[in-house]
Amino acid sequence: MKEKSVLIQDQEFISNALKLRFHPITVTEGKGCYLFDENGRSFLDLTAGWAVANIGYGQESVAEKLKEQYIKLSFTTQLSAPSQTMTELAEKLIEMTPGDFSKKVWFGHSGSDANDLISKLVPAASGRPKMIAFMGAYHGQTMGALSLSGHSAQAKFEGKGNVIKLPYPNPYRPFSGISEHLTEQTIHFMNEVFSTICPPEETAGIIVEAIQSDGGVILPPDDFLAALRQICDQHGIYLIVDEVKVGMGRTGKWFSFEHSPIIPDAVVLGKSLGGGLPISAVIGRQEILDSVTAGHMFTASGNPLCTAAAIETIRIIEEKDLISQAEKNGQYFLEGLRSLQKKYPFIGEVRGKGLVLGVEIVTDRLEKKPDPVKTSAICYRAYELGLLIYYVGIHGNVLEITPPLTISREEITEALHLLDQTLQDVAAGHVDWEQVKQFSGWA
């Protein structure tokens, strides 16, 4: 009897609630910035698995640390019997995170459970019931995290009622239709909210992404975060920055908020923290994270394997100087993408910082009408040519480029060449549209 392919097994056995598919790939191996399918074909990966594989695939030192740790101590529930890897990682994260105040660290499994903690403990610590978040934000899938989110992909779910959503200042698509003084517009909107449905004395915290990643790789105006910090200081509101996707060196600094002159009250990490192993963290004011004893616990949180992997991941980023490499290579990549923009009129905008880059696909540059169909076709055709890209955005029309931070100039040049061929083919209609329809991503 012929063995079923992974794709057939996936269709038969795996819940659609766990699927976000852009092309018919299965992965059997990964090395550096390349993934390999079950036929041995290689793909240059510009996704890093939704920005998880910051240090690339197959780092031998991580494998060695995991084996060493498993033999020494495969598991202890850190809730009741802590071990050194958890406390060592916590101390390192506190050292990395700006803020001259008493901090502590909480550990979980994903950005979702970390932002779920924010939804619970920030109101508890402040004694105030309401939270403010932003349209386009994607903070996770659990109840508290999706309640804080404002992404179109989660609109079908009902969340908690204590969260007020404000427009995020998107310079390319300003919520008012006017791009001038966008930060001032946003703060004016916030003050209207304060004076009506969300009094500041009832507001516990504001959670924000310094770059909205799943929202479409949106970079707000340079003065936006500082304006938020000022509002929070004025009213005694906590400011929380979600760095789950764009943190850990991706933007050319440890955290993307460090490009602004602010210090958050709490920072949320996930995805790339474990170098591929599931771990999340919140680094925040002690008064927040100590506000409720036994208030947000998961049996395997901070487990020895994941914390050991995170410690080694941080060491690799530091030792290989991947943060400055992300800044330099990101600029090189950005310039290459802007050269492609000049060739293809359906590229509305290219934007980004470091190695988180967005390419917005439109039907017409003047009207800026989103073109999610063409975007999906680009992802599919790129796959056929050996390049992996995903798309994001509330309109499903932004190519998101988040390769491993280990990507080289030569690999970026190769990626740009493959992307150029992809765009040329899509522009000429050389796409199997029936196949594209089967891999609709966020739809």
Automatic annotation (TrEMBL):
It comes from the Bacteria. GO terms for molecular function: pyridoxal phosphate binding; transaminase activity. Its cofactor is pyridoxal 5'-phosphate. InterPro entries: Aminotrans_3, Aminotrans_3_PPA_site, PyrdxlP-dep_Trfase, PyrdxlP-dep_Trfase_major, PyrdxlP-dep_Trfase_small. Keywords: Aminotransferase, Pyridoxal phosphate, Transferase. Belongs to the class-III pyridoxal-phosphate-dependent aminotransferase family. PANTHER family: ALANINE--GLYOXYLATE AMINOTRANSFERASE 2-LIKE, PTHR45688. This is Aminotransferase class III. It comes from Pseudobacillus wudalianchiensis.
